[in-house]
Design a protein that fits this description.
Layout lengths: L3 E9 L5 H11 L3 E13 L2 E7 L2 H12 L6 E4 L5 H14 L4 E3 L17 H8 L5 E2 L3 H8 L7 H12 L5 E4 L8 E8 L2 E8 L9 H14 L4 H17 L21
Parallel strand pairs: 1-2, 1-4, 4-5, 5-6
Antiparallel strand pairs: 2-3, 7-8, 8-9
Helix pairs in contact: 1-7, 2-3, 3-4, 5-6, 7-8
């Protein structure tokens, strides 16, 4: 069977993040991508100017249509927008029991625009995180989920990862792109311990969609049968190369996209 992954997320009209970035990532890594759209955003490289949430029952209809026909190897969840959508997604995951669920707890866009209603954060914690094989928060998202300050040291990040495990997910990948220093260090935390994954920090403003794309790359690896540690390492290497190649593009006047297809052109 062709490895297949489903992304449940919002649409980015500028094509750099969200559903569009997820599908590009799947394709770049040799995985067939399906999608269920939770929200439409009016968005470009400079920011988000509007959000239109998809009705929860139609989110359910999209998910059911995919699972009833396609052999989904992994699910990636990104922007969920509202509590009603979280309810719908959680019910669907329980009903269809996918093998792998990668949850990217998207709360705020890179531009600073809020992508998740404040009242929906608790539903994210209680309903979706316990269903996840791995969650992939960045440093501010990890802190927000725990109602704590942003961690600044490796020990602090690992400690937050361990506390996030108590919310019910099987693993936590805390993304270090918002950190400081010459290296961008991600931390994979499981019940067995923590692993630091470092890559050189690339000087570029073309970073739109990095978080979406990393979590999608992890889902792609899982859909292909990789174990979590391998999927995370391969995703990190691929994303680092996509960021390093991002300046081949000249797209927009803000934070441009990464180069998903850097291996091809």
């Amino acid at each position: 069977m062709t490895p297949t992954a489903l992304t449940i997320a919002g649409s980015d009209s500028s094509g750099g993040a969200g559903i569009q970035a997820d599908l590009k990532t799947f394709a770049a890594l040799g995985v067939y991508g399906a999608s269920a759209i939770t929200a439409l955003t009016a968005q470009n490289t400079k920011g988000v100017t509007g959000i239109h949430a998809v009705p929860a029952d139609f989110v359910t209809a999209q998910i059911d249509a995919v699972f009833s026909d396609l052999d989904v190897g992994a699910v990636k969840i990104g922007m969920v927008a509202q509590a009603a959508s979280i309810d719908a997604i959680a019910s669907s995951l329980i009903r269809w029991s996918p093998r792998h669920v990668v949850l990217d707890p998207v709360m705020v866009a890179s531009s600073g625009d809020r992508l998740l209603a404040a009242e929906a954060v608790e539903a994210l914690r209680k309903e979706l995180i316990p269903l996840a094989s791995v969650i992939t928060p960045n440093l501010p998202e990890a802190a927000a989920l725990l109602d704590e300050p942003v961690a600044v040291s490796g020990a602090g990040i690992e400690s937050q990862g361990r506390r996030l495990l108590t919310l019910g997910c099987r693993a936590v990948l805390i993304k270090g792109g918002h950190g400081q220093g010459a290296e961008s260090i991600d931390y994979l935390v499981t019940a067995d311990g923590a692993t630091a994954l470092a890559a050189p920090r690339v000087a570029t403003q073309n970073t739109h969609g990095t978080g979406c794309s990393l979590s999608s790359a992890v889902a792609a690896g899982l859909a292909k049968g990789e174990d979590l540690a391998t999927a995370v390492r391969n995703a990190k290497a691929w994303l680092s190369a996509a960021i390093a190649a991002a300046d081949r593009f000249s797209v927009g006047h803000g934070h441009g996209p990464i180069h998903h297809f850097h291996r091809i052109y």
